[in-house]
Amino acid sequence: MYTPHTPDEIAAMLAAVGAPSLEALSDPPKGLEIRTPFDVAAALPEAEAFADIARMAEANGASRMISFLGAGAYRHYRPPAAAWFATRSEFLTAYTPYQAEASQGSLQAIFEWQTYMCLLTGMDVSNASVYDGSTAMVEGAIMATHATEKRRFGVSRAVHPLYRSVLQTYAEGMGLEIVELPVDGDGRTQLTGDRAGDLAAVIVQSPNFFGCIEDVAAAAALAHAKGALLIQVIAEALSLGVLKSPRELGADIAVGEAQSFGMPIGYGGPYAGFVATRREHVRRLPGRLVGETRDVDGRRAYVLTLQGREQHIRRELATSNICTNQALCALIATAYLATVGARGLRAIATANLARARMLAGRIASISGFSPAHRAPFFNEFTVRTPEPAADLVRRLERHGILAGVPVSRYYPDLTHDLLVCATETTTDADADRFAQALREEVAHAVAAV
What we know:
Structural class: alpha/beta
Oligomer: single chain
CATH superfamily of the largest domain: Type I PLP-dependent aspartate aminotransferase-like (Major domain)
Number of strands: 15
CATH class of the largest domain: Alpha Beta
Number of helices: 11
Largest sheet: 7 strands, mixed
CATH topology of the largest domain: Aspartate Aminotransferase, domain 2
Distance between the termini: 73 Å
């Protein structure tokens, strides 16, 4: 237990060091006072101020790698308010809120997270979060199995390979069959009637792994015509700031990753996945669901409404044995969304669109480089390179540039494809530096031949 010092104790300590007051301890020694005003720059937006500080650090010899990495983990500006809320002791040290009467703050935060996820996806209900985007996709598949009593899934080859790997692991244990849907030259999923037969669900990601925006409405129409559900995966949640919601496009279940909402990349986590769906599937949601009600005095109160995991009910009736929720990460995302607001989220998403198109234009102007696909994209796109992309990426590291993800890491046949990402943090100077490094490496390669 923390016990503060008494006034007598404070007086004794001040007497021992010869200070008249606590405030006097921070007074500068005589002769070292600053007598002239500081010559400081005019106020700047916080993001620009951080960029200025980074430039000063570089002038002092500090190195800075410019990153164009994406592939499911995205660098975005993080409002300090989001981190501040997450580090408040009542949230940072909180466990799961079993006692609702003692956990109203935590429950309200989860309720607001659920509300934001419904607003973004257009769905009727969202759960309290799951581990990450990959496990969210698995939970969506399990929901579809329970809803349709079918065990086959049509999964686009353009869904993130790591997400598909997690699904395959679960499929082996649950007896699910995965049918891979191919990708066409535009970078979109090929949708044909014969591939949708007898499926529990069709699973597409938009924007997909290659950065392309899928025709989700066409996929939904095909799935529904065959008695299947449509699950849309969103690995870059910020895209929901400008794209139509999954509900508008006909999806039955929306799953994805909320890392872009204020969470640092952090070597792959921890993150927070979301699962949102239509009202008819509410009892199939994994984890827990927080609801709003009134107490005996008529005051607003928050309660755990549904907890469909095996810790709470019989295993054979449980919807999932996965985690209850990622409360702290979901809190960060909630604080982020509350801070930027609807207009701010749209502005940030629009900036991502603009930055990505600016960068794509810079790269396309270099001889030997071209877009790999014709489909529209959000903040990530695939570039066809004149040499193996993995070799090019290794050489660009010497320029202080993380050039992107060689697609061959996950698709061995696509050796000359490079997945590149630009966000609101990407500057014109970053893009110019990237383009110049590409030109130099191409020139060196030509000279070597």
